[in-house]
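In response to the reviewer comment on reproducibility (Comment 2.3), we provide here a single inverse folding case reported in full, input and output, so that an independent group could reproduce the run without further information from us. The structure tokens appear first.
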């Protein structure tokens, strides 16, 4: 059984009468995941146009709330509302009503720590980098007002729409990508709450900043292997990586506690980075899957596992030989055992084994009984590559596939899935 992610603009612009026949081509669709708030993302990423959208050829997500919900500005922290969403033009209500008499379950998809947040308390909840600069549009998992905001959103989501299960995404510290590539966004968070938390466990924030400074200096000198070895073996940085993971785990534990009274059986599912990278961004599979019954990750082999690997390498190194050295150090740092040059990677991505390897790793790291969705890239690739990824996921320890995403997928990709399901082949 499979799931597919869908954006609010797909629902409003295409209409359900156009969407449903495409969903039927997937044959075994069980879950529809409509996004309730956008991220800062070009639709589709990074080039091309929306293949069926009759209104917009490209949509730029701007981090806004796309459901009908009351204002939370009196709390001091709120998410900017998308103009044009109203009770009469409510994508989540449209999709909910369209799925009432089907076997497809709607699971709203929320981006938790990344979005266009605003309010008097924003500066007390932002992620701060190692030199004291706020990272735009990111909230810190240790921020004091974040849990209450989302618990209230989920309570209002239940009240208006009746949903008791939500997929939560962006539950991590920032990665290096965004509106522009900036590796320093990873070197976070040094907000007052994180610094206090570090002191509580005997970790000196100044010592962490000093170790980060040494790491950054090695990268600046293009000593990529040495920099990687330093960061993987430095005790202060190891404690800091652990602190980041524990911060996210504690955040999820508190969020679950605050949302459990919304309705009987209210459940959060989690979207994580593939395990090669997850630890680096503050996500510990064992801890998080002990709290959430279902996890989805995105081992997109053609796209370097969903990370903007090319963007990072090119921000760190300019000459070809330097880029090869940086890429080789990247593979070592993230335990990616593929004999691959940077030139080969930019042409073809990671080998297909990446899908199975990462899914099997998710199974090994996750709590027993965790349901695992393997995210499948369903855009900007030839149909045979899509089928390869589905087959690799199904041969792995994952339970199901989750397609990303409806609005970016061209019709030939829907046909490829239909052929695979009906004929067992492409
Ligand atoms: Zn912080």
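Designed residues, in position order:
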């Amino acid at each position: 059984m499979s799931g597919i992610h869908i954006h609010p603009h797909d629902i409003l612009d295409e209409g359900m009468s156009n969407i449903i026949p495409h969903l039927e081509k997937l044959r075994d669709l069980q879950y529809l995941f409509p996004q309730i708030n956008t991220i800062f993302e070009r639709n589709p990423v990074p080039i091309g146009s929306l293949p069926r959208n009759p209104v917009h050829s490209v949509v730029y997500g701007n981090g806004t709330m796309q459901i009908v919900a009351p204002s939370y500005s009196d709390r001091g922290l709120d998410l900017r509302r998308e103009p044009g969403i109203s009770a009469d033009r409510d994508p989540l209500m449209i999709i909910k009503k369209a799925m009432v008499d089907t076997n497809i379950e709607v699971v709203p998809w929320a981006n938790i720590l990344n979005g266009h947040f605003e309010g008097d308390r924003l500066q007390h909840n932002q992620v701060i980098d190692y030199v004291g600069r706020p990272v735009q549009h990111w909230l810190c998992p240790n921020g004091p007002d974040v849990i209450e905001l989302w618990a209230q959103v989920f309570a209002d989501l239940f009240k208006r729409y009746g949903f008791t299960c939500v997929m939560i995404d962006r539950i991590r510290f920032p990665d290096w990508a965004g509106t522009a590539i900036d590796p320093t966004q990873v070197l976070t968070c040094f907000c007052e709450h994180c610094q206090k938390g570090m002191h509580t466990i005997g970790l000196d924030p100044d010592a962490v900043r000093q170790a980060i400074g040494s790491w950054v200096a090695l990268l600046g000198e293009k000593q990529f292997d040495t920099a990687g070895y330093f960061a993987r073996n430095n005790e202060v940085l190891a404690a800091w990586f652990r602190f980041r993971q524990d911060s996210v785990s504690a955040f999820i534990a508190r969020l679950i506690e605050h949302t459990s009274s919304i309705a009987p059986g209210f459940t959060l599912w989690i979207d994580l980075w593939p395990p090669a990278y997850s630890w680096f961004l503050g996500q510990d599979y064992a801890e998080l899957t002990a709290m959430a019954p279902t996890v989805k990750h995105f081992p997109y082999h053609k796209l370097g596992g969903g990370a903007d690997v090319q963007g990072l390498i090119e921000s760190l190194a300019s000459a070809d030989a330097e880029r090869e050295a940086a890429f080789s150090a990247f593979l070592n740092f993230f335990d990616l055992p593929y004999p691959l040059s940077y030139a080969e990677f930019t042409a073809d991505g990671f080998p297909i084994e990446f899908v199975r390897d990462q899914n099997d790793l998710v199974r090994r790291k996750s709590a027993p009984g965790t349901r695992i969705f393997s995210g499948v890239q369903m855009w900007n690739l030839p149909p045979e590559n899509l089928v390869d990824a589905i087959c690799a996921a199904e041969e792995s320890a994952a339970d199901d596939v989750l397609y990303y995403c409806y609005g970016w997928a061209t019709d030939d990709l829907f046909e490829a899935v239909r052929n695979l399901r009906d004929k067992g082949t492409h």
